[in-house]
Amino acid sequence: MKRDPAKRRATGAATTTLTNAAALQDHLMRSLDLRLPPPRLRRPKPSPATSTAANTVVKATASVCDPSSEYRRVWVCDECTLENHDDVARCTACRAFKPVARRPRLTLAQKKGLMPGPPPRLNNNQWEDVEQQAEARGDAVYPCSICREPFGVSPKVLLSCSHVFHQACLTSFERFLRTTDRVCPLCRKQNYEKKPHEPANRSIAASARVGFRCDDASPKTLSHLCDAQARIRGWLARRRYPSLLAHYYKQGNGDPRRRSLFYASKVSAISSRIVRAMKARADSIDALLAEFDESMSRSRAIFSGETNQETANGKVASQWTTALAKATARNEAECPICLNAMSAKAVTLLSCSHVLHAECLVAFESFNIYEVHLCPVCRGHYESRRLHCDMSSFAD
């Protein structure tokens, strides 16, 4: 007896509708991470002999190792590409955390075309468009959306939805997320892709180093800022290196030969520092004694009534010679008061090594309202001596 074709078509349509409904329900439950509890089935209690035989079979089966399953129970580290056992949560080489599933399996609704499947992987051109979107939005100058801290120089990752995060923050977010699907912390996009964010590193680092936003700064300025910061960091690292090395060798670590060379260089540096300190102390003592001798000679000259040319003007000959040498090296061609040629009139040398016309200095002192005469150039107290017109020697 043949069935009615119309009835057969109606039965097939109903079956398809039920299958699609079940597929949609399964897809929604998976996307919302809803799990039904497993059914509780009652089993008859086996006899003691049967249970003992079953336990023996189970132990024998568990002792057999399937080589194919052992090969599949590994995961590849994103940082160093090392294969690790599936039971290990962190990489044994670089201590990176185990990544979550990359490409989730398609549900029945996605296979039947009822729901859109995950988008294909982005190519290089699409990644460039995503980076341009992130730079145009200005994510580089704002803090990380997870930890709310500036990006600084820490590693950063860019998602396929054009959002930027700290690599450590996103790794922690993925590790503690209560779902197997990847979800962006900002836009909630599922099954995103990520890559290290290199183009924005320079602007982010520069803005973090200078402490303000560098929206209007040119690339050349940012490059100079990065170079300055790198030089400062290098100087600080070189400054800390000897203390860190001393602490390392103090614990008994390292090569004995290198450790002995390090301590020998350290002792040599200490000895050199002591020698320099003793030399500086001896020089200071010699200078102090020379000053005492000079003061004693002046005192004896005053009490002995000497009025020779060396002390007549209150300055010793060596000091006047030094002042004349400074004036000659400066080679001043004009008088600072009248602004005429220096060789036109008689010249006077001040103790501060400035040279003026004798007549100009007399006029300046006559119109001076203060009791103490001050140099018209440096405003310092001075004593004067006449010079020859060629400024080669003193006239008095």
Automatic annotation (TrEMBL):
Alphabetic keyword roster: Metal-binding, Zinc, Zinc-finger
Gene3D superfamilies linked to this entry: Zinc finger, RanBP2-type, Zinc/RING finger domain, C3HC4 (zinc finger)
Cited InterPro entries: RNF32 (IPR042862), Znf_RanBP2 (IPR001876), Znf_RING (IPR001841), Znf_RING/FYVE/PHD (IPR013083)
Entry superkingdom: Eukaryota
Name of one Pfam family that matches: zf-RING_2
UniProt cross-references to PANTHER family, sorted A to Z: RING FINGER PROTEIN 32 (PTHR14991:SF0)
Region Disordered, annotated ranges: 35-54
The protein's name in its UniProt record: RanBP-type and C3HC4-type zinc finger-containing protein 1
RING-type domain segment(s): 144-188, 335-379
GO molecular-function terms, A-Z: zinc ion binding
Organism name: Saprolegnia parasitica (strain CBS 223.65)
Residue ranges annotated for the RanBP2-type domain, each copy included: 75-100
